[in-house]
Amino acid sequence: MLSSALIFSAHWVAQPTALANSVGVDGQEVGVGRGARLPRIAITADGKLGEVLRKNAALSSGFEVIDRKSIPSSLVRSKGYDPAAWASVGADVVVIVDGSGSQVKIRMFEERGGKKAVISKSYPASNPLKAADKFMNDVVERFTNDRGVFGSRIAYVRTRRDPRVSKNVQTVEMNGEAPSAVTSNRSLNVLPSIGPGGEVLFTSYAKRNPDLWISSGGGPKRISSFSGLNTGGVMSPTGSSIAVTLSKDGNPEIYTLSRSGAVKARLTKNKAIDVSPTWGPGGQIAFASNRAGGVHVYSMSGGGGGAKRLTKKGGYNQTPDWCPAKSCGEWVVYAGRDGSNRFDIFKVSTKTGETKRLTQSSGRNLDPSWSPDGRLIAYSKEGGIFVANDEGNNQIKIARGGTSPDWGPRVEGY
């Protein structure tokens, strides 16, 4: 029972994805991705700032980034903006960086906007990563009226074999920069989740039982150590409760705990296995269960009542994640196995039941997690952690050798 619960609450391998339109679960036709042309952006800066600016532009899913090496040196060196010259190299948008002492000014021009910068902001020159993140958030806000999520972090599991297998949790910025270790031991530390305050919950076998731990910036602290499973802990949006799977009463069920680990309520009571809780709007919870035979995604109220089956296709749908943004609050993303025995990323509407397939692969695409603004999704596949847009396009690897990603909240100051 314990191994079964762990199997479909977390997978630790993945394989590459190829975008295409495809036959969905059990023969249902579902489209993969959009085909619109992206504006081409040229970024003249070199060094770390230029590197991160180009990476962020690509990750935003809003631009096609022009290779700096293909830009004439006269344009790269120019501090002014000549619309005709930039149009000749196919640039729709141009970003020019000027340094001035302790400040760096970043300006963005649009081909249709004339010679006046549409964005002109200054940032401390001492931190090029933060400058690049804040600038891209400014860019996203210009086009969407909602700031971007650059600077937010993704927690994931890194596996090492030296020679024993160990799994440790670390976090990284959404663009793959500034990695930071949460755990560094020879045990198995899995299923990380970042709370609204940036704290990281995870399950660890450090004490030989799958216990729930929390890290709030210092040393990790064990908060739930009931006999059996203490897995899949996720903090509520308010930070007041933790939803988790416990098997202390014999069967894996979903409970809520206080931040200190005290049991607040038992939410499910079923002979089946109930795992992988995720919080939704109004305190609702989605989870995975095999109560219908195959593994499917369900939703219920925050008090545990009104369980409703969300996925109707496929026989193995796992690791749901409910979109945290109002713009996509009806959608739950999950990893599902189709009729060809492939694991791919899907999303299902909690209102209409509509299912959309986001990836297609002969291997495994697993553990999807929404960005805080609902525009991007992180997931794992062979080779590491990838980020794509909410339709499955623009897949970019941001971390190697990682599994089980969880996208944290926006970061203050970005």
Q: Keywords, please?
A:
2 domains; Neuraminidase; 414 residues; mainly beta; Rossmann fold; single chain; 5 helices
Helix count equals 5
CATH topology of the largest domain: Neuraminidase
Large-scale geometry? elongated
Strand content: 35-45%
Rg, alpha carbons = 22 Å
**Average pLDDT score:** 90
The total number of structural domains is 2
Instruction: Going across the biggest sheet, name each strand in turn.
Output: 4-3-5-6-7
Q: What CATH architecture of the largest domain do you see?
A: 6 Propeller
Quaternary structure state of the chains depicted:
single chain
Strand tally is 31
Low-confidence runs of at least 5 consecutive residues:
1-34
Structural class label? mainly beta
Topology summary:
Elements: H1 2-9, E1 22-23, E2 29-30, E3 40-43, H2 47-59, E4 64-65, H3 73-77, H4 83-87, E5 93-100, E6 103-110, E7 119-124, H5 128-144, E8 153-161, E9 165-173, E10 180-181, E11 189-194, E12 200-204, E13 211-215, E14 221-224, E15 230-235, E16 242-246, E17 253-257, E18 263-266, E19 274-279, E20 285-292, E21 294-300, E22 308-309, E23 316-322, E24 331-337, E25 343-349, E26 355-357, E27 366-370, E28 376-381, E29 384-389, E30 396-400, E31 402-407
Parallel strand pairs: 3-4, 3-5
Antiparallel strand pairs: 1-2, 5-6, 6-7, 8-9, 8-31, 9-10, 11-12, 12-13, 13-14, 15-16, 16-17, 17-18, 19-20, 20-21, 21-22, 23-24, 24-25, 25-26, 27-28, 28-29, 29-30
